[in-house]
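Table S2 (continued). Query chain:
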Amino acid sequence: MTSVPSSSVPPGSVTRAGEWTVARRRDGSVRAVSSRCRHQLADLSKGSLDASGCLVCPWHGSRYDLDSGEMVAGPKGFLFYVGKTPGYTQMIKAYGTVLKLRRRAVREVGDELVL
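Corresponding output:
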């Protein structure tokens, strides 16, 4: 069992709890997903949440639905390049819809988020 202090995940933020990325949406709901981007294995706990509550990869901007674990927008770059990658982005997005992020239930117990 893994836990993280509830105060370490304010609304609109992302943090790491063991092998999991924990995100608290602006509405207060909390989700936990596996921490490796399906594109190039970036640490998603270093990412952010966008206005729609999707987890955004810090390296190339892939976006993930926290409820399904599905990649909803593909990467905007490759290796150290950040920019348009026609065809490649669509291929990685298709891969990310099949190989989704794992999800883990989160409970708030006292001042802790328990996974």
